[in-house]
Queue: 3 jobs
Job 1
Amino acid sequence: MSNKLTKRAVCILSGGMDSTLSSYIAKNEGYEIIAVHFNYGQRTEKRELKAFRDICNDLQIEEKYEIDIPFFTQIGASALTDASIDVPTGGVEPGVPITYVPFRNGIFLSIATAIAEKEEAQALFIGVVEEDSSGYPDCTDSFISKMTSAINEGTKETTKIEIKTPLVKLMKKDIVKKAIELDVPLKHTWSCYKEEDEACGVCDSCRLRLNGFKEANIIDPIPYKA
């Protein structure tokens, strides 16, 4: 356990571009980072775990948690965790997409809060993006604000945790530009919902990512299927 003068932050780090940039911002703000990654039965679980480990090496993070949450595959209901539901590849549709995992960020934040309380961290970083996301209800400013109230209500009086969402109002092109500015190793990040060797380029997540790079006028360093 670090001394009380050290600022500590728990960073939820999926290995994607947004959570990686969020973690770099935490480091830039002077926090000692405790990284948390979730294996929840997502299609690209192995590839995301590799990204997480690579990024932890890049950031020289010593304290990290790899948490298994098997029940998401048990309940299904999402194309990310249920093999019988196809990941859509036709572009972003209106409404909440089938790739939404029920209350995933609420569950991630709850577990990360338990870790933050144990580690005596003051902040919890999550790379949610409201304006340029896929329409997930658990990525909004309003949701994060209510979760902040709930976690501080339900933890010890001495525990004071701020949920920090540095990217929540950014567009994908701004995220790409900010990542380049902070020298984030984007080649180590993974965003594809479907594939683990070469990104598919057509799922919602790939489309958002590719469009962000295009609008930022920067070449995406990860491999895509032809």
Note: The first helix runs from residue 17 to 28.
Job 2
Amino acid sequence: MSRLKLFYGAALVDEAKLENYEEVLSRVSGDLLIGASEGKDGYGWVDLPEKGHEQIIKVAEALKSFDSLIHIGIGGSALGNKMLFDCLTHPFYNELSREERKGPRFYLLDNSDPHLFLSVLDMVDLSRTGFIVVSKSGTTAETMANFLALWEKLKENKLPNLAQRIVVITDPNRGALRKFANEIGCLTLEVPQNVGGRFSVLSPVGLLSAAVQGVAIEELLHGAKDMKKKLFERNSIDNNPAWILAALSMEHCLAGRNMLVFMPYLSRMNSFTEWFAQLWAESLGKDGKGITPIRAIGAIDQHSQVQLYTSGPNDKLFLILTEEKSKRNVFFPEKLEEDSLNSLSYLLGKDMKSMLNCEAQGTLAALAKSGKPVAWMEMPNLDAYHLGGLIYFFEYLTAITGGLMKVNPFDQPGVEQGKVYTRALLGKEGAETEKKEAESYMRHIRSLASVI
């Protein structure tokens, strides 16, 4: 794999302090391999790059004939799909002709928002649309709400062969979706039992919709496999960028900088920052601990957030990511005839990719000058192979940072409590106590109100 470079000279941490984490990081990294080999809950993502993808390709072929594809899921069953779509397809994919696209137009139903639901239906012909529905438990309220509403629409339209239009991705043995798939006989893929949602993008959860859109998922997995080999082979903080970033994150968190600003200088990675935010926040926010992820995109957020970052409180660690080369570029003219544009002569003969990377370096320098801690990552280019490696890198980084913080990075008790209250408020049988609890908290919240 081409090298993923990490520069941390402006991270404002004594290297000797980072070395103090080496022994713990070695143990935590080794525990990941042991946990995966033993099939421990939450550790299955470690081995996903080696899993076969032939069945995913086969199911994807069954969906490619449709004009549109609607993917139904939320959280880890949706953010990864959007991330792969945005990073690896044309920014205006749905507006391309069928000949120019490599698959159906793609729509995502994640939030249980009626405006979103009806707006997606406005854009598709249901008779020419395929559907993927993803829920490991088969009971995720938002996903099942969208699915139930959509299933009713399909029956109302009396569409033939409904089972051939739907692919269910769920637990292999249990849950409402598994029972539904068995009842109607639709195609199914399995969510690996020991893989959590936010770590599932390199499983059928994320790979199926990407394969339908023509993404080379074998290259994604190849990149992830190569990254896995390097990360687990490098057992020194001197030669493992993930260990360095984990130690930096921990050291700055202890120093009161418990926010991590992740700022790629690529517009296509906007959804990657959303995927990372869930991965980082839901994995590390436990037991009163945590490092808050802040999403930004360069150079856009130079004009909206960098004022705060350079001149505001010193409570953040900054991670900026750039791409060395781009397959597409725009070149500026060598000379200008208009005198009114002479002030722009510094751009002449340059190209847009170089300009974007100079803007990243300008932000890095400005943050360093203001005394803020900065790390910089540079990847060769954003294609399926390197994206697969980057995904695995951040999953591994998150898991070992959880180990340093002494939290379980693979559970989400705070999320589960909200789900319990939601189902109770909707009238789930047997949840009367939880309903009374939730209503009591809501009465307290409403006890003081200000109305205009």
Note: The mean pLDDT is 95.
Job 3
Amino acid sequence: MTQPLERVRVPSAQSETMTDQHGRSINYLRLSITDRCNLRCLYCRSCEGLKMLPHDQMLSYEECLELIAVASTLNISKVRLTGGEPFIRKNFLHFLERILDAHPQLDMRLTTNATLLGGKIPALKKIGIKGLNISLDTLDRAKFQRITGRDFFLPVRGAIDQCLDYGLRIKINVVAMKGINDDELAAFIRLAENQPLDVRFIEFMPVGEKTVWRPDQVWTSREILQQAQEVVQLKPVTESGKRNGPARMFEIVGGKGRIGVISPMSSHFCGQCNRLRITPDGRLRTCLFSDKEYRLRPILRSSKLGREHLRRVIIRAGKIKPMGHEILAAQGRQGSVCRKIMSAIGG
């Protein structure tokens, strides 16, 4: 049974800080609201053998609201909604509005492929969304179709331009892959040089049981930065008191935007990891690379187990959050580091 919506609001006096066994403070939740996606990106999923979660196994919006309410009592100050593709889910804009109505202090973020953003950007601005992370691995239309399996490049580029027109902060996430998009570094740099946005290159990770990942496809952050400095002058961003998450950010001297690198393969950032992930079917994952999961959906649907039980499970799970680089090292860089594909985890 779904918990009643009336229980969504939580008194702030109940708040406590979560700290794991390594001394890391956990204050960031990534919540995947669907495993559905309208793209078939070669590094994430293909049409072969693809199975979707039955609707009754996905968390309802009310259950997601309950999770966010409980998270807010555990000093979670930042929530990112992701998928799959979150805008595929029906009434998603209304769901966003409900979250921010209940938790106006929340740092609310979204990750999207931007294919369905057309016509929704004014509403996002009105709701109070200040920025979007947009996945875009190429600036070439034909290559976009080869990577994603769909010819949606033009709507994505149009959506990015419209977001900038409305003053939304845009971070473009590029999965960096040798032999696929490493010839486009200069084009991405010029985009960030000419537009007030961030372009962040993420090292290709061995995630998913049927991943096409190979060690020789990893375009490392060091290589990207070395090549980038042959194109423009970069200045490291050192914002006192602010965090860029796992990204190392660089200003483009004389440019409007910035570039960044995220290096889970070549230079881990596990010591600063502050996040938990919840899958569309309500499974808590404390590390992207670990298949260890904690089932929250049965608690949410139980008529006997209440909010305090849910809090205790999340706290216990957070306490033993592992170091992802140790999992990578044990895996040996020869294949998948976890069974689930990225769209089923939430990235």
Note: The chain is about 30% helix and 20% strand.
